[in-house]
Amino acid sequence: MITPTIVEGLRPYALGEKLRGLRLRKSMGLVELGKHTGLSAAMLSKLERGKLFPTLPTLLRIALVFGVGLEYFFTDERKRHVVAIARKRERLRFPDNPGKGSIAYNFESLDFNATERKLNAFYAEFEPVAAEKVRLHQHAGVELLYLISGTLDLTIGSETFVLEAGDAVYFDSGVRHSYHRASKGPCTGVIVTA
Amino acid sequence: MITPTIVEGLRPYALGEKLRGLRLRKSMGLVELGKHTGLSAAMLSKLERGKLFPTLPTLLRIALVFGVGLEYFFTDERKRHVVAIARKRERLRFPDNPGKGSIAYNFESLDFNATERKLNAFYAEFEPVAAEKVRLHQHAGVELLYLISGTLDLTIGSETFVLEAGDAVYFDSGVRHSYHRASKGPCTGVIVTA
DNA sequence: CTCCCGTTTTCCTGCCACGACAAGACCGGT
DNA sequence: ACCGGTCTTGTCGTGGCAGGAAAACGGGAG
Fold it and tell me: What is the pTM of this model?
């Protein structure tokens, strides 16, 4: 069932304009694109003018020709002018694991007041914890860690890396990982997940 | 026409798993989701198991319930087990604008050896530049800046914010923006874009 | 075992994506 | 002007596949 509400909800993605943009950028005609995709020129025209919603197979065929992923069409281009500032003094600090003896790190959210997050960022202070007590965790996406000070043991899967101040890592956070402060002094860093 | 090639091309998006993930995260049943979306539980089951490709209207209905955009489904989740470490000493430093007098900042890529980037991260040292010479720039996506030291004037669109060490900003980098070091001493930070 | 709940399978319907075709529309070239 | 040619947009028809209804399956709990 195709209701006005749904049509409205799909409009912001501007599929038609994006399709037309891709095609014209390569100065290609509807018929030519039709040959490459195996679709009729007539239908391509309708798609570009928003008279019709492509099925995923259809959309993928076109995407393949232009070498883009489907995400190209669905990255919401509503320019939400997001600006969220997290002042150091205003930030809340959460212990990683309140009430237990094994607090591995304190962290502060750096963008908790951004409505729409594609990124989650934290400022972390790693606390000394017995190596056997550190907890592994995992979550979908990727993670980026920039170490500002101290030395940190980072375990990813079965491997452990030693990071010094100024080092950075980028890894798939779907793999189990854990942090362990290796330096005597303070150990701080910025963590960004997506 | 629905060919094996197309099926293969759609697999990496793992629509089914994502749908199921969304539903289970809210510990919701197929029937309940059916009520909210106006879709039959039977079909939802098929979608989650990849037996069927949803049309865009259908997909949108589900997305609306969970408050996600369609982009949620099409960000390619090929789990390449990425681990890329950028050691401080091994990193290359690029001036923002080599050969010209108006170098606003030096930056070092923090994940340049990661094959598939969803995130781009830089360590930046902001240099003193006359305020009128700073250049505005823009690029798709969002940007996150964590200021490690110094004071920085950040202009986003027509607004200017003053950031102190430890502050962080999260904003839509599609809007024109520029950096300008406000402190006498060194001014450094981490920039992540997505 | 029976009841209950959520899920999957089966079967079928009908909507709408998509194609075929033709009619504009807009170019040059002669 | 009058033609090709190329690109685009209507109109109409169809069948593939999304989607529904209901029955079968499965797993706890009692």
Answer: 0.53
